Every structure is written in structure tokens, then in C-alpha cells.
Amino acid sequence: MRKVLSLIIVFLGLVLGASTKNSTLDTVYFYYAENRFNDALTLLQQLQTRPTTREMQQNILLEIADYYLDKANDYARAESIYQQILNAHPGPRLIPAVLYRLALTQELQEKYLEAAKNYEQVATRYIKSPYSQDALDAIERCFRKNYQERVAYVNNYPITRIELDDRISRNPSAYESFDAKLRLLDTMIDSRLLYEAALTRNLHKDPQIRKTLLDLRNRQMFQVWYERYVTTRAEPSEKELRTNYKKNITRYTIPEKVQGYQLVVTSKTLAESLRSVLVADTGKWDSLVRTYSITPDKERGGELGLFARGVQPKPIEEVAFRLKPGEISPPVSIGDTYYLIRVTRREAKKVRPFDEVKNQIAVEIRQDRTNKIYEAEIARLKKAAAVIEDSLALEQNKETLAVVNGVPITRKQLEERLNAIPPFFRGQFETPEGKRRILQQLIIEKLLLKECEREKLWLSNRVVDQLINRRTALLIDAYRRQETTEQVKLDSATLYSEYKKTINDFKEPTRVRCREMIAKTQSRAEQLRRWALASRIPPLINGIAFLVKDENKARELLRILKETPNPDSIAAASALAGFNVRIPSTPVQNIAGKDLPDLTQPCKLAGPFISSEQFAFAFLDFSSEDQLYQPEPIVVQTTDDLKKLLTAQQKPAYTLEIIDSTRLGTYVRLITPLPTSFLKNIFKLNAGDVSEPYYTPAGYLVIKITRKDTAQQVEFAELIRRFSISGSKWSGGEISLTRDDKARDPKVVAAAYSLSKGSFSPVIKLNDTTYTFIRMEEKKLAYTRPFSEVKGKIENRLRREMEKQLYEQLLSQLRAKAKIEILMKEEDFKTEPSETGKE
């Protein structure tokens, strides 16, 4: 009784929602959409026995053949029925439809020559048929098998040169040799043998494989439907594009623009002084911007880019649009900063031509229409169907959430769809609103699937092509899995036996876990070791020092440094020349992308400098224990002077690959320590303070303190992260050492194994520029990893080995039973010499 009531509901829903070209077959399409294929066949057979018109009889017979082609995959039976319809001389409308289907059944049975001939008839004789384009695509697919140049036969099945070339084209470099091509051909032969074996075992009837292919088929049909009924209809015409262009002409109008540059300082006096210099010589703009500007764009000459009104602050905009190209504005005050604005060019307002924005307009119209057309199509399908939605079903935890054409959509179906969403995205759909979206999608899919069945979109070449390729891969994979993966049986006893045999693989040696500190010099390493032992960093300062020859200029620099919070740009203008010009291996600190000599490191010779008037140096993390060195400039005016200077140094002498005019300029020695009294005064300064000019025989030294840290307690790992020069610093210097560790210096290994937990090694010299000391953190004695820990690893290895062995045996057996003929020869791949080459 329940089944009868169910059928009544179904047919009532269909009657209420019927709006098809052929309402007699509407129920068949409904059954297809619900995967009730047997019910569909039964109904078709019943319809076949009823008296009706000749045209209707042919349509029913066509539907029966379609059932065997698409649902039952009985290609031979489908071919027989299609041939029967053609023999009955159907009307001209039906002929291309039947011919296309007949060709498809023949292709699926690997009757490629017959299939190609029938596809050709559809493509050439029935050009206006809806199947003509799909037939053209299918001809190309069949051509690959009908190609006369064969490279092999497998049980009389041809593998063509064009198929081989296609595989080679995916990775040409891997198949350059003939042997590599032969190996590829062997792989193609093996795939064919596995496919034939899978068919013999009837794996194409396996429910899981059929379901996978059905899901793929449905997804592809949805895409074809969307392209055909939404995307194509959303495409705007040329006339519409031009109308939209004229209507929105202001959107395509480019306003007046200026190319601007800025120089920004915090002193009005400095800004006015700089402007007077620039008005006299605009060629100095870039160097002065890099030296004095406080904005990040100083490295680009203060470039603001090409901008229109409304982009820059109002005061800058007003000035910029009043300037003529080449002019420099008076200082513009904004807050506590002063701007010099320079304009180099202006662009008048213009309208972008239609051809330039045509594609942009098309994209916008397409996007807008696509959503509207899709929503209209879904509304049409809902109106034509019997859809009952219970708005409270989700909140009230009802089992039936909606009914489409008499068929319920249940909570279980919604939960299955929800669980199929990857966990990362699932959260947004677990809300009531998210579940309503999933429910709507389930309703739409039911409506679309029936529409796709009615429109026979499974006949589209896009769907067919995907199914053919995927079907082959699925069958091969299933057969291989049955013959290899499912044949491997591994119990715990077998795995434990393997564990005992390979026990040495799971023995872990004694390991010592340490932390390492790496420094460039022994004195620095000793200093860091003292800090590590005390777990304390003393007060530290960072600073930039400038050497200026003239006292008045030193005083002016002092004033500028006091007014400039960040002196990096000033230092960068007085830095060393590029690494390809300067003396190699100079100890440096990088400031604002430029290298400055490190004032804490003695140096026989550094240079040349960019500037010839003032020279910048830097020091970082400087403590009262450290030493600063007095700069001694040396002016080099000729290449001969430079050669003498280099050769006069104590051995080893500096060497430069090329000595030319690019290396001339001012060099410096850092040999003599600065007085302790001067250093004490430096330590009295706070961050941001500037020292009074300090007289040296070479000029005046002016220092600005850029950072000052008070003494602080510190863990060894943090000390390493801050001061070590090794890449291990980011992990707190952690290293793990075995007794015979070949990757580490033997002295480090020996020290690690001699230390007790928490103790430090002495400083160890690794080479002339690398010194280290370590602290022992933990010693883990040798042990054997337990079976429970490595069981999975053993199982995976054994399984891979056994599966590989079984697979090789399987291929050997299949090849022994098969008739294989390889026609490919090495000379087939030799390129003929060109006519030019012959001459």
C-alpha cells in the first residue's frame, strides 16, 4: 500500500510540474534523474506496446536505445536499435541524431573506422544539426585511432604514432632517447593489457565504478548546461557594448595628471635652504632627496608617481597642479613636516577609446547578466516542477526538508552533503543559513539533472570525452588494486618477524642536544660567553658616526642630526661604494640598504666611500667593554696610488680583480682605538642624542645614538637569537650531535660529549672568521625504537615491496598470454635534414 501511495505522489508531482516538449516521456526523465533506471526501462517498454503515431514510436525506440547506451552501457544492443531506426527511414530531423548516437556506440566498442564515417556524415551532411560540432570533435578523437602509422599492436588493438607523440609532448625532455620512447610504449602496452583484463572481469559493471562515472557524468552535464543556457546567453553584442560605452563615458575618462616628486624634512629652514640649492641646480634633486628626505620613497628620488586630483593631501595637490614641468614649489607645511614638490610632466584629460575598454565592458556585462540569467533559469525550472519547501523543517529537526516532484529531500541527504565538504570550509555551512544554502543546492541539482536528461546533454562531446578517459583509468586502477593491494595480507606476526630481522635499522645512537653561539671573532665570542654565564646583557647602544673635515660643517651636521629623528638617509649618502667596487671582506653594518664600516672592528683598509666630504660609520650592540676605532682617511686620486696603497699593507695584502678609476676616492683605516674617556661620554647619551664634535687628526667625529638598551636578564636561547651569526639562531641555536657526527667539527662534538647538563664549553675556533661555544642541554642515551612505534613504517615498506612484486608478476603473465607486436623503429624518429642543410 505504501509503494502505491508513493507512486501516486510521484505521478501527481509530475502532472503538476509537467512542461516538456514530450510529456509522455517526462516520467522517464524523472526516473533517470532519480537513478531509477529499471523503472524507466519498464515504462518505455510499456509505452512501446501502446498504439501511437509512427513518429512517437520512433522516439520511444530512440529512448530505449539511449537507455542501453547511457544507462546500461550495453553498446552492442544500443547499436542494433539505432541501426534498426535508420533502416526504418526516419524523418530528416531524426537522422543526424541517430547517426551521431550510432557512431558513439561504435566508438565505445572500438570500431573506430565505422564510427569516424558516421561522425563525418553528421558533420558534413547535417551541418545545421545540433550534433555537427560534437561530431567534428569526435572525428578528431577517432582519427587518433585510425591514424595509419602504427607503433604497436596489442591483441590486434593498434597504438598509433600520434598517441605516442601526444604522450611524449607532455614531457619531451624525458623521452629524447629511443630507449626512453620504448619504455613509454611499454607503459602504454601495459595499460592496454590491464584495461582488457578489467573488461574481461566485468569491472565496468562494478557498482562503485558506475557510481563514480555517473557522478562525473552529472557534473559535466551541469557544466554543459551552464555554458549553453547561461554563459552563451550572457555574451553581449557589439551594439550593446557601444551603447554601454557611450552611457558610461565618464568612467573611461582619464582626468588630468601630474608626475610629482617630494622632498620631506622636519625643518622649515632646512627646506628653504634645500630649495635654494635645487632652484639653482635641479640636477642635485636625487642626491639631496636621498640624503635629507625622511620618507621611505627617498630611495626612488621621492617619486609620487603620476597622480590625479583627490589622491594626495589637499595642500600638496593644490601646489602640484599649479606648477609647470621643471618647477619646484616653496615649502608646503603639513603638521610638523615641510614638503618640496617637484613636477616633471603633465598629462591632459583624455577619453580612453572604445577598443581599449571593450573587453572590460564585456566582462562587466557578462558578470551582471550571468547571475540574472542563472536565477531566471532556476526560477523557470522551479515553476515548471512541483517543489514544496518547509521553511521550518531545519529548525524543527524534521526528517523531510523539501519535496521535489514528489520525491523527498531528507535530513540524511543534507548531512551527507555537509560531511563531504572539506573540514576547512565546513564550518561556514554548519550554521542554519549554511544548511539552507545546501538544501537549495540539493533542490537545484534535482531540477537540473532532470533538465539535463531531457536535453540529452550526456551526448555532448565534453561529457563523452571526460567519461571515456576516466572510465579507462578507473578500470585499470580497480583491476590493479584487486591483483596487488587486495592480495597483500600482513599480520602482526609477519611484521614483528621483519622488525627482528631489521632491528639495526631502528637503533638510535646516543645524542647530545646542545645550543650553539657563533661569532666572527674570538673576542666577541668570549664576550658573549661571559654574558651567557651571567644570564645578563649589559647596557648596549647603537649609533651612527660621521667624520667631517671642517668644524663648521660638523656643527651644521650636528644641528641637522638633532632635527632629524632618523639619520639613516644621511648616513646612506656617506656610505661605502658598492660591494663590486670596495675592498672585500670589510667589516660592515647595513643601514638603509647601504653598508657602513663597523666602527667596533679594527680594519687595515676600507673603502672607497661614495662621498668625498663626509664619511659614515656604524656600531650596533656596543657595550662598555668594547672598543671604537678612530677613522684615518686616505685619499686615492690615481690607480698607481691605489696599487701602492694595497701592496703597502701587511700580509696578506688586499687584492682587487680590477683596479680602475671606479675604485678611486677616499679610503679609511680603523686601527687606533678612541680614548676611553670619549667612550664613557658616549655611554652617557640617551637614544636620539648627538655628541659634540670630537676632534681627531683627520677631522671631527659626530655621533648620534639611535638606540640604547638597559641591562637585562636573558635566557641563552634569546641571547643566541639576538647575537649569533649562524642560521641556527632562529631555533635558539639548537643542534643535535651523535658521537660520529660528520657534519660538525670534531672539536665541537668532543666538547659536547665532555660537558655536563647546563655547562658551557670554552670558545672553540672553527676557522679564522668563525668561533663558537656551546651549552649542553640534554644527553639521550642510545636505544632501540619499539615495535609499536615503527610497526606502521614496516607495514608500508613491506606492502610497497610486495605490491611491486605482484604487479611485475601480473604484467609478465598478461604479456605472456597476449599477442604483442612492436613496429616502432629508431629511424622513425630521425629528423630529415632541411634543404638549407643539404646545400
From TrEMBL:
Its EC number is 5.2.1.8. Gene3D superfamilies: 1.10.8.1040, 3.10.50.40, Porin chaperone SurA, peptide-binding domain, Tetratricopeptide repeat domain. The keyword Isomerase applies. InterPro entries: PPIase_dom_sf, PPIase_PpiC, PrsA_foldase, TPR-like_helical_dom_sf, Trigger_fact/SurA_dom_sf. Residues 255-345 form the PpiC domain. It holds the Pfam family SurA_N_3. One of its GO terms (molecular function) is peptidyl-prolyl cis-trans isomerase activity. This is peptidylprolyl isomerase.
